[in-house]
Automatic annotation (TrEMBL):
The keyword Oxidoreductase applies. This is Pyridoxamine 5'-phosphate oxidase family protein. InterPro entries: F420H2_bilvrd_red/Heme_oxyg, Pyridox_Oxase_N, Split_barrel_FMN-bd. The keyword Oxidoreductase applies. Residues 3-126 form the Pyridoxamine 5'-phosphate oxidase N-terminal domain. Keywords: Oxidoreductase. Gene3D superfamilies: Electron Transport, Fmn-binding Protein, Chain A. It comes from the Bacteria. Transmembrane segments: none annotated.
């Protein structure tokens, strides 16, 4: 519950992608979560998207504020993919407008952006207990199943609660 609470309470993440020469490219950007999956929008011709299309492996870091014993930070090893199904894009856009009506999800203009879905493989949550940081890692399903469109296996999600 603490991980989902943290993901739902924040709006910014740091996304790290791999450049073709192997150097990392990290950017802070807005996101919206649906369960453990994260969504963001980016320009169709951005370096970030070019790197994701060449290598969909990404890293994510999200930092929040929490009470003693709750997750204060989350990092993920994940895969990213561009949404192409118009129905799914419409659902994500509606979710953004519902949760954050002050945001304009298609700014720089329709057709110039894409929606990217980040599907976690491994999640590491950090909590502060008795003034010290404690980390716990969770595996989220099979990579091949994730890339085949399965968002995450229910048994893995159950272990988070």
């Amino acid at each position: 519950m603490a991980i989902l609470k943290l993901l739902g309470s924040q709006t910014l993440m740091t996304l790290a992608v791999n450049r073709p020469d192997g150097r990392p490219h990290a950017a802070t950007l807005g996101y919206m979560n649906d369960g453990l999956n994260l969504y963001f929008m980016t320009a169709r011709h951005s370096e970030k998207l070019s790197n994701i299309l060449a290598d969909p492996r990404v890293g994510v870091a999200i930092r929040g504020h929490a009470e003693e014993g709750e997750a204060v930070g989350v990092s993920m090893d994940a895969h990213a993919r561009v949404l192409t199904d118009p129905t799914e894009i419409e659902q994500v856009t509606a979710m953004i407008l519902d949760r954050a009506p002050e945001n304009t999800p298609w700014a720089p203009g329709e057709g110039k952006t894409v929606v990217v879905k980040v599907i976690p493989e491994t999640i590491k949550a950090v909590a502060v207990i008795d003034g010290r940081s404690h980390a716990q890692s969770y595996q989220i399903g099979d990579v091949e199943a994730v890339m085949a469109g399965v968002d995450y296996e229910p048994s893995a999600v159950a272990r988070l609660f």
